[in-house]
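Operator note (shift B, R.M.): manual run for Fatty acid desaturase domain-containing protein requested after the automated queue skipped it. Running by hand, logging everything below so the morning shift can see what happened. Input copied straight from the record, untouched. If output looks odd, do not overwrite the archive copy; leave it for review.
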Amino acid sequence: MSPGGLCDAPHMAVAPRVKPLDLFTPEEWTRISARSSWRGIWMVAHAWGVILAAGALFVAFPNPLTYVLAVMLIGARQLGLAILMHEAAHGGLHPKLKVNDWLGEWLCAAPVGASLASYRPYHLSHHKYAQQAEDPDLVLSAPFPTTRRSLRRKMIRDLTGQTFFKQRFGPLLGKMKGAKTTGQPKGAIFAGEIARQRPFLLWNLGILVVLSALGLWWAWPALWIVPMATWFPLVTRLRNIAEHALVAKDEPDPFRHARTTNANWIERALIAPYYVNFHAEHHMFMHTPCWNLPLAHRVLEKKGLTQGMLTAPGYLSVLKAASSKPVAA
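Run finished. Output pasted below as returned.
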């Protein structure tokens, strides 16, 4: 029998679940599931504060070292905004849904070119079918393990902006190429893409206007676009690998639908902000606010239940395992 209290069972399309009160006392679950009217707002403010502080560091002390540090910190907090959008998809940023969705859409998703409205149904489907055949995110974990050479190529594409360009402009270019087949005018396709990207474009225009007014117009490409095109895609990939790579398909045990990675403070600053490393707990208790996931982990640990979970001592160990496939002779 698994730690989740499930016996071996035939494949089911919907991922098996745990009942929190089978694991926690009512008092423990009340603490773990408690929402907050200020923690989510604070975390959004924190993400933007780190972005501003990292940019100011380079402006005040311009040199290669501070620039690389700024790019890494800003790119990680751009990922942080995407993670907080993810939190909003679960209703965790604020108890009031309208406030939650406004924060998630306009202060988290739009600045990095995402959409909470589009992301939420997709992501909840991922939770419903986690690691089952119907999981829309299964394609992200399917290629692993891969070879070190393959992983290195992917990371180089991330750091050189190739992944950013493909994700940002690939769909538009594909539609343009298919315009003759569909009969749709290219102008209409382009206008539709502009409309879809309007919140992202407005945010970038606003950032550029404010920076230009401060005499720092160059900071928009150097300290916003470059991190978004380099470090942000890389750490997004690393996060995806850590969460679900090498996790068994059709896994019947809800304790093993995702991996929790024990991130140190450097990893939390540059790769895994806002408790995203507690991914096994997140999948078991998906509506628990992210700041309570460490508490859930500690309580499970005291009960001896974390031994059956998928865990890793750090991101490097996951990458080593995920790139352990031998090179074909």
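Quick read of the result: DSSP finds 18 helices and two strands in the chain. The longest strand covers residues 259-261.
Leaving this for review. - R.M.
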